[in-house]
Amino acid sequence: MTRLLKNGMIVNVFTNSLEKKNVLMSTEGMILGVGNYDTADEIIDVSNKILCPGFIDGHIHIESTTLMPHELAKVCLPCGTVAIVADPHEICNVCGLDGLAFILSSSEGLPMTTYIMLPSCVPATKFDESGAKLTAKDLKYFYSHSRVLGLAEMMNYPGVINDDLEVMEKINDAKKMNKIINGHAPLLTGEALDKYIVAGITDDHECSSELEAKERIQKGQWVMIREGTSARNLEGLISLFDEPYCQRCLLVTDDKHPHDILMNGHIDNIIRKAVSLGKSAITGIRMASLQAAQCFGLKNVGAIAPGYKANILVLNDLNTIDINDVYVNGNLVVENKRVIDFEIPNVRPEILKNIYRTFYMDDLKEDDFYIEDKHTDCRVIEIIKDQLLSNELICRLNFNKNNGIDIEKDILKIAVCERHLYTNHKGVGYIKGIGLKSGAIASSVSHDSHNLVIIGTNNKDMAIAGNAIKKMGGGLCVVENGDVLAQMALPLAGLMTTKSAKEISNENENVRNSARKIGSNYDIEPFMLMAFMGLAVIPHLKITTLGLVDVDKQEIVPLFLENK
Amino acid sequence: MTRLLKNGMIVNVFTNSLEKKNVLMSTEGMILGVGNYDTADEIIDVSNKILCPGFIDGHIHIESTTLMPHELAKVCLPCGTVAIVADPHEICNVCGLDGLAFILSSSEGLPMTTYIMLPSCVPATKFDESGAKLTAKDLKYFYSHSRVLGLAEMMNYPGVINDDLEVMEKINDAKKMNKIINGHAPLLTGEALDKYIVAGITDDHECSSELEAKERIQKGQWVMIREGTSARNLEGLISLFDEPYCQRCLLVTDDKHPHDILMNGHIDNIIRKAVSLGKSAITGIRMASLQAAQCFGLKNVGAIAPGYKANILVLNDLNTIDINDVYVNGNLVVENKRVIDFEIPNVRPEILKNIYRTFYMDDLKEDDFYIEDKHTDCRVIEIIKDQLLSNELICRLNFNKNNGIDIEKDILKIAVCERHLYTNHKGVGYIKGIGLKSGAIASSVSHDSHNLVIIGTNNKDMAIAGNAIKKMGGGLCVVENGDVLAQMALPLAGLMTTKSAKEISNENENVRNSARKIGSNYDIEPFMLMAFMGLAVIPHLKITTLGLVDVDKQEIVPLFLENK
User: Fold this and answer.
1) How many CB atoms lie within 10 A of CB B111?
2) Is the Cβ pair B14, A307 closer than 8 Å?
3) How far apart are CA A69 and CA A87, in angstroms?
């Protein structure tokens, strides 16, 4: 059957212009023609509307949204996102290949096409006790999956530059299969960057300055302009919307929270922002469609032209990217800003059971968090406002009461508890800057190995909070005086929920409010901060299940300094 | 080993700019870095020079140059052409898969990479008695050859538009193998063009007007701006060098004679001409390098950037594209404008013997060209100056002497003799506009089936000319009063020679001068015209081994009109 969109203005991403043309498409998925067509099985008048190709998010972690792929599709499709390129790095750190199988099958056949990049760095560091290790051999066979486009962000750039065997095997496998290898190398420059690119890394989404981005474009990489919930690079990179640089950029969100998508939008929001900063909407649309497809080698995707996939957005207004309807494969999937119901992919129970069961640890006891005083100076993680960086603070703690915790001075306890392999390893230390006055907070979202992380004002509430998370099979919670004040379950790998974006946003707001009640600063997002205190690639002092890590030296350090 | 090109200015095709940078490359073939490098195993100072990526000719028929691939490489490399995409359509019409095997093996390992597109239309028309028929099944297995990029120019656009089974099978095989399908659809527009593109045709090189080309770009095709020896479209398409259209164009020669390459150059000449017409040399370079690679999906080719193939031209001057040295895969192949000797590929004798033996026909006799007078009006092919089009002229011929030939009125005889399969079929008719006053000319170059074509002032000289060609195993010759005045052998399939460009150019000049001696106009190139009089796709009246063809009606028509 054929369908004709008649009398609209078309955004032509090949010529950067608007054309008054009719679009004929087949309901089997392809654009059949663009011109003066006037007959079809179904004719839809789109007078006064703008038609543009659907958007592609070139780099996103589905797990960061906490949503199942179909729930994510429900909120992204009205934003014009018809495809995402997802790196299931988080869930693979928890569940290994089961995580990959889960994301692949739970996104199968969605109206928002979910392309997958194979996680390149599981575990992320040698300090990570993750739930799985993915070797080159593990990944290799997945390249033949039709939705697998390549190897995901290669964060281990020292491994690339120093020809680490395992890293190079992963890269070479992807290259042999003619696949893309995404980059992740913030601030890498000059000869080191050249070596990284020579290895076969095609792009980067970590650029924060014009200078950094332009060097990459000069050297042939694609630059993914990232504007996520936390990491926001659009303003710093806005000059890339000018010629000729714009020709080598695409738009990505990386990590995006459901509340943010509901409130502000997705890729559409990045284009809107660029327009508000004086740039051309058509340039943004081109980045988000044709160029994203080109970066990933997707043929016949990203334009309104004969032979292209009939993924078309119907806009009420170009500059505000006011999306009224969305066609995917020639069929309406969003009508009048509302998603049309679609079939939810089926995930086989043998995969699902492993995704739902990811806590392999003993119940926590108050004593687990007890620290014996060594009567010397102690290393304390000090958080820095608005950053994921942390300082190493050296101070003498008062062990006369509350096992070194000093609420007055905002020195609280932090613990990271291994939950994947029954090692029951725990790293316990101190953190300054969170602001809790009572109780404890805990979470199973803790990059990148997603062990159980707890921050508290006393050992007892910490144990209760940790056990509450374990009982839910993952999530966030707030405990005070032995009672759970609020909790939000993330039972899928401890990272995701089956709830809708709206439901989970509300629950998240509730948990955050409870955390504020027990003293967390309004300035900081304690759960987000907490999620990065275990990531031993961000300087300077972090904590994993193995203890404190001096990130700069890349070594485990003791909590207490030795007596000199 | 590493090699450093130091102190040059680099043409950056990602940013359309010149950068003062050093280029480090490996002699194994890759660019390792672009920046402030200053050490390497070998350092070459390129102060005051411009470095740009090597050029790619996106569409060429090697057979039209008459040269072996290695001889073609010798003349193209100094012009900066480091790769060609060849359609061996002509030789496959003569030799079938042997022709393909010959071109593949005779171009293996050349410093000028010879990519191959599989001929899509052998034979070209139903009126062609060619030496072979290439079916989809014949072509299929060649897609796995590393230098085969796809299916060559799909000239049979009616077949595409009408879903001809065999045509669609060829197209679908190419698509399944993720290969490119080149287009050839002059003047196709609107809905018919849409259908052609929807089938999967990615480009066209037959555009002669801005309007025609821009429609294709709007619809997502690449436009190959062709400037060959005969078909010259650059001037008509010069506005495509402006943004944004230039981003979707590449440069090709299609058919180029060796004398023209020696005198004027190759792809470099197209850029030079564009500059003389006021356009940017960098735009031309970008079309001829990065964009040609993008059109064909060639990764890491066409730019001076880390990880790209080290195919670099060292220019004395940008705007005249004055090429001093050429590096291919990091090694010098042209030094100071002179090609460095390279190894000539070996062709196995069992392939070669079939290429050398392509005349399967009886000797010609004077009587073979005798036409019996039917005493009615006769159809005569009338050539049109400067065009390959021909008119149908209806006139009563005088059969009282010379069997209808009338030298005064410039009505000569033309014959096309089947030479592939011993059918001894002959089409004999009359032609006006060649101008011979005595003798005959003959050639085995006759598109697309390359049967033996002869034009003469008398039957005897025609037979002698034809037999001379047969004796050489192909070529061109001029006969007068029973003597061969000049001849040029093309013993490889009747199309090509093992001689150098210079030698064959001199021979060709000699043959042409002889043709002029017996009366051919200085205004026309009789052998070139003759080569197209058998091509039943160019209106209006043509002749094949089966007789006269009314191209517009696509049917065989009798020489004499029936009495009414």
Assistant:
1) 24
2) no
3) 12
- Position B564 confidence tier, pLDDT thresholds 50, 70, 90: low
CA distances from B366 to A398, B39, B505 (A): 120, 74, 31
Is 80 exceeded by the pLDDT of residue A564?
Answer: no
A16, B244: Cβ pair inside 8 Å? Answer: yes
CB-CB neighbors (< 8 A) of A33 in chain B:
191, 194-195, 198
Instruction: Please give the average per-residue pLDDT across A82-108, as a whole number.
Output: 98
pLDDT digits (tens, 9 = 90+) for A315-337: 999 999 999 999 999 999 999 99
Tell me the nearest-neighbour CA distance from A194 into chain B, angstroms: 5
Q: Do A194 and B33 touch (CB under 8 A)?
A: yes
- Residues of B with Cβ-Cβ distance to A291 under 8 angstroms: none
B400 CB burial (10 A radius; 0-12, 13-18, 19+): exposed
Q: Is the pLDDT of residue A427 over 90?
A: yes
The H-or-E segment that residue A84 falls in is strand A81-86
Size of interface A-B (CB pairs under 8 A): 108
Is-above-0.80 flag for pTM? yes
Q: What are the strands of the beta sheet with A148-154, ordered from one edge?
A: A55-60, A81-86, A113-118, A148-154, A180-183
Indicate the residue of A24, A36, A308 with minimum beta-carbon distance to B220. Answer: A308
CA atoms within 13 A on the CB side of A432: 20
Q: Which two tokens stand for residue A149?
A: 């486009």
Residue pLDDT, tens place only, B365-420: 999 999 999 999 999 999 988 788 899 999 999 999 899 999 999 999 999 999 99
pLDDT digits (tens, 9 = 90+) for B268-292: 999 999 999 999 999 999 999 999 9
pLDDT of residue A478: 98
Cβ pair A499, A507 in contact under 8 A: yes
Nearest to A220 among B14, B190, B214 (CB): B14
Kindly indicate the confidence band of residue A388, based on its pLDDT and cuts at 50, 70 and 90: confident
Instruction: Give yes or no for A177 touching B (CB within 8 A).
Output: no
A chain contacts of residue B245, beta-carbon cutoff 8 Å? 15
| Chain B positions in Cβ-Cβ contact with residue A14 (cut-off 8 Å) | 217-220, 244, 247-248
Q: How far apart are CA B300 and CA A298, in angstroms?
A: 17
Name the DSSP letter for residue B233: -
Rounded mean pLDDT, B344-367: 96
The 3 state secondary structure assigned to B102-116 is HHHHHCCCCCCEEEE
Nearest Cβ partner for B305 among A220, A243, A308 = A220
- The alpha carbon of residue A178 is apart from the nearest alpha carbon of chain B, in Å, by 9
- Nearest CB neighbour to B248, from listed A14, A32, A190: A14
Residue B80's alpha-carbon distances to A230, B10, B47, B74, in angstroms, are: 49, 15, 19, 11
